[in-house]
Amino acid sequence: VVHTSGTIERVCQAMGCWMELRAEGAEPVRVPMAGHSFFLPRDVAGRPAEIEGRVALVALSEDARRHLEGEGATATSNALSIEATGVVVR
């Protein structure tokens, strides 16, 4: 479990069930909201955020990748994700 911060690059425009978080000098990381247990407002891209969650290496299936990309995701080639159990948007 990690606690980290960065800038919200993108948010799922269907439900707010994932975001892409970018730390300075790094590629964005996919951050799903712990099993759809909570959602983010869809208009928070560009704002700073702090998250807590479990780091995972999860290779996406082609279907999952297409699904996420259909919702606007771009960080789908990297297997690294952080399943957020808490998010604070500033």
Write the layout of secondary structure elements.
Layout: E1 2-11, E2 18-22, E3 29-32, E4 48-57, H1 62-70, E5 80-89
Antiparallel strand pairs: 1-2, 1-4, 2-3, 4-5
Helicity, as a percent range: 10-25%
What shape does the CA trace take? globular
Radius of gyration: 12 Å
User: How many H/I helical runs?
Assistant: 1
Which band does the percent of strand residues land in? 35-45%
**Sheet with most strands:** 5 strands, antiparallel
On the 0 to 100 scale, the average pLDDT is 93
* Strand-pairing-aware structural class: mainly beta
C-alpha end-to-end distance: 21 Å
- Order of strands, main sheet, comes to 3-2-1-4-5
* Count of β-strands: 5
Give unreliable regions as ranges: none
Element order: H for helix, E for strand: EEEEHE
What does this structure look like?
This protein has 90 residues and is mainly β. It has one helix at 62-70; strands spanning 2-11, 18-22, 29-32, 48-57, 80-89. Helix content is 10%, strand content 43%. The chain starts with a strand and ends with a strand.
